[in-house]
């Protein structure tokens, strides 16, 4: 039997992995979406779909508006 080895990403390697994943999934990085002021997922003006302080904070973390974040995570209503 072969052994399974865990791969650990840290620092710049982790940032690059997250950016590449976002680009593959959404067509842009979180940083690009935030710079444009749009949601990474729906591509709409993010602040139009952030209804709470928590939603605004989450947008700054994930690049997702509150509406999309809630849909993806099953949160919200």
Could you say which structural class the secondary elements and strand pairing correspond to?
mainly alpha
What is the helix fraction of residues, given as a range?
A: 40-55%
Question: Which value, in Å, is the CA radius of gyration?
Answer: 15 Å
Tell me the β content.
under 5%
How would you describe the oligomerization state of the chains in this entry? single chain
Low-confidence sequence ranges: none
Describe this structure in words.
The chain has helices spanning 11-26, 30-36, 53-62, 66-73. It has a domain at 31-77. It is elongated and about 50 Å long. 18% of the residues are buried. The chain starts with 10 loop residues before the first helix and ends with a helix. By secondary structure, it is mainly alpha-helical. It has four helices and no strands. The model has no long low-confidence stretch (mean pLDDT 91).
What tags apply to this protein structure?
elongated; mainly alpha; 77 residues; 53% helix; 4 helices
Topology:
Elements: H1 11-26, H2 30-36, H3 53-62, H4 66-73
In short:
The chain has helices at 11-26, 30-36, 53-62, 66-73. It is mostly helical. The model has no long low-confidence stretch (mean pLDDT 91).
């Amino acid at each position: 039997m072969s052994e399974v080895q865990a791969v650990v990403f840290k620092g710049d390697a982790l940032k690059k992995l997250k950016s590449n994943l976002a680009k593959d999934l959404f067509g842009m990085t979180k940083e690009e979406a935030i710079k444009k002021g749009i949601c990474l997922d729906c591509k709409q003006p993010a602040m139009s779909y952030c209804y709470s302080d928590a939603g605004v904070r989450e947008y700054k973390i994930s690049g997702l508006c509150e509406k999309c974040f809630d849909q993806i995570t099953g949160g919200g209503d």
